[in-house]
From TrEMBL:
Name of the protein this chain belongs to: Diacylglycerol kinase
GO molecular function: kinase activity
Task performed by this protein: Catalyzes the ATP-dependent phosphorylation of sn-l,2-diacylglycerol (DAG) to phosphatidic acid. Involved in the recycling of diacylglycerol produced as a by-product during membrane-derived oligosaccharide (MDO) biosynthesis.
Protein's organism: Shewanella psychropiezotolerans
Entries under PANTHER family matching the protein: DIACYLGLYCEROL KINASE
Cofactor(s) the record lists: Mg(2+)
Keywords: ATP-binding, Cell inner membrane, Cell membrane, Kinase, Lipid biosynthesis, Lipid metabolism, Magnesium, Membrane, Metal-binding, Nucleotide-binding, Phospholipid biosynthesis, Phospholipid metabolism, Transferase, Transmembrane, Transmembrane helix
Membrane topology: Multi-pass membrane protein
Amino acid sequence: MKPENNHGIKRIIRATGFSMKGLRAAWVHEAAFRQELMLAIVMLPIAVLVDIATLEKLLLIFSLFIVLIVELLNSAIEAVVDRIGDEIHTLSGQAKDIASAAVFMSLALCGITWAVILGSRYL
């Protein structure tokens, strides 16, 4: 049920709380999210400190965030599919596989971005 007075700053505060709750849930329940977040924490200072153009730094950082965002969406899809039932269903497996493929594609994009930008600078 939606709250009656969910406007303005109250809505923003509530939405922020829900977002923090979601990040906390992903950290606690999703090993892949923890691994990707730890990798991003290591790679973020590299992106900031490396001697490249600002736009290239932003591309490196954005690619890290894309991986995390797609992993969060993947985890949400998996949670919804698991909530529906325990029985094995072709469409449930397909939904999970497609969400996993999205994570794979985001990781590939991140890897290619880092390889092209840093490779052109240091190789």
